[in-house]
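Deliverable D4.2, example record:
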Amino acid sequence: MSSCRPQELVLSLSVQVGDRISLRIDSLAFGGDGLGRYEGFVVFVPFTAPGDTVEVEITEKSARHSRGKVTSILSPASTRTKPLCPYFQRCGGCQYQHLTYEEELRAKELQVRDSLVRIARIPEPPIRPIIGCPQPYGYRNRITVHAEDQLIGFRGTDPREIVDIERCALATEEVNQTLEQLRFSHPKPGHYSLRHPGIPPSAFFQVNHLLLETLRQTVASTFPSGLKEGIDAYCGGGFFTSELVKKFGRVTGIEKDGRSLKDARRIPADNLRLVEGDVALELESILRETDLASAGLLLDPPREGLPASLVRTLIELRPAALTYVSCHPPTLARDAQKLIQHYKLISVQPLDLFPRTGQIECITTWAAQA
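Output generated by the structure prediction step:
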């Protein structure tokens, strides 16, 4: 490791692009970047660890913060480890391979808490210990690769580039075998979805095969006994629906993607009704025809979170139990800021469905207030 020579450092508040500074990393922001403060000015630096002292070259500057890249590690944190993948820091898929898995879990739990405190204004969110993955590699049951200019791989940390890869450390062996076959076939330019055997090709499906049942059972357990009607909004191919039909007397699934509903229709249940349509448009009428006092609603929206119109519906029509599953803590916190005024937040359960990446899954449990 090289040392940082003081005469090369910028000791002025007016840090400019191209300047080099010495920076201690205090924490990890959601998405994976390390966060440090230089004379009170926030600087984000990827591929760093809390406790690192690094020499950083400033690459971007705005009125509120700067971004930089590591030019040398002056004093490494004790939580660093050797990355498993040879493509790490060039491929854009992973952000945390340089950390021990224990440190990654600690950081993600803190990021969930920070989002709810800072954005949702919930001073003491009821966060349970994060559920980690049994193994942080070899868990993905599907990947999407890009074929371009005789390269087959993932977008790089520079998204304009394709990083040519022979295998993905996050994918199952079966998926990597499919990747090997694709590489030998010299495919035409395009995007290719490579899936583990048994994963439906027509619909979205949770990627972590090691935590599938944990996720499904944890969500189902959030609903108290005695509820009669369940609504699975954004039901997709019926991943959660297949468990909810066992818990409720009647279940309604809502999904706008007809391809996904093909898989949901294969669920062998007489108490299941499926509605093809936009949740923001369909949910209000379904709630109005439901006994809200005995209803449980599951929301599993895309990373953009809930549309404002849907939040207004939830505020007006309050099912007794609400479970909100999110893969994006900031949008979850944005929606929680509005829901907390009309629902009680019972629990927040983070799950690490995406080890070595900046993504986090959260299951939040709510109860309607009078």
